[in-house]
Design brief:
2 domains; seven-stranded antiparallel beta sheet; alpha+beta; 5 helices; three-stranded antiparallel beta sheet
């Protein structure tokens, strides 16, 4: 009886010491089992990185200064290969761009996408018109809006979603000069508040 108890205590002590013996070699973790053999544990799988997560967004910062944005639509953007590469590098400007409906389709005009620096003779024309991809129902809505006096369609930003280029189109109503002055005053006031808060945190 005493022999069985002693044997159990020795076995428990051995398991305890073995469980405490572990180590890491490189990215692989090893543990010691009860009989002193090295057992390899399963390495955790790292989450797969989503392509496009760090890609730039092309902003039209002047749009909210010149216009009241009353509604927004997301559209796909038909591009060539060199245009996609230039966009991924952030080499585009949509400050002077606008959207127009022609032949039942919506087109983006005057958006400047710089030629791809490593492109060949197949490089694109920087300011060519580009087709926007929308549902028929959305095109019908924009057609009606675009006919209203004082309204226009402006791109607010170009970005990538699920590895596809997208454009956020704003339904824009032009501001008067006094509206623009109010916008400047609001922007300056916001900056003053942010500056005061930053100084208070110091």
């Amino acid at each position: 009886m005493m022999g069985l108890v002693a044997s159990s205590l020795v076995e428990a002590f051995t398991v305890k010491r073995a469980s405490a013996a572990c180590g890491t070699i490189g990215d692989t973790r090893f543990t010691m089992d009860a009989v002193g053999l090295m057992a390899k544990t399963t390495k955790k799988q790292e989450p797969e990185k989503t392509h496009g997560a760090n890609e730039p967004t092309i902003l039209n910062r002047r749009a909210t200064y010149d216009y009241f944005i009353e509604d927004r639509y997301e559209a796909g953007l038909s591009l060539t290969g060199t245009e996609v590469k230039s966009l991924r590098a952030g080499r585009a400007n949509i400050r002077d761009a606008f959207a127009r409906i022609d032949g039942g389709e919506v087109w983006l005009w005057n958006a400047h996408i710089s030629p791809y620096e490593n492109g060949s003779y197949t490089n694109h024309e920087p300011t060519r018109r580009r087709k926007l991809l929308l549902h028929r129902r959305e095109i019908g809505q924009l057609t009606g809006i675009n006919k209203r006096p004082g309204y226009t369609l402006v791109p607010l930003r170009i970005y990538f979603r699920h590895n596809r280029a997208k454009v956020e189109i704003g339904v824009a109503r032009g501001k008067k000069d006094y509206d623009k002055r109010n916008t400047i005053a609001e922007r300056d006031a916001k900056r003053d508040v942010e500056r005061a808060l930053a100084e208070r945190r110091r």
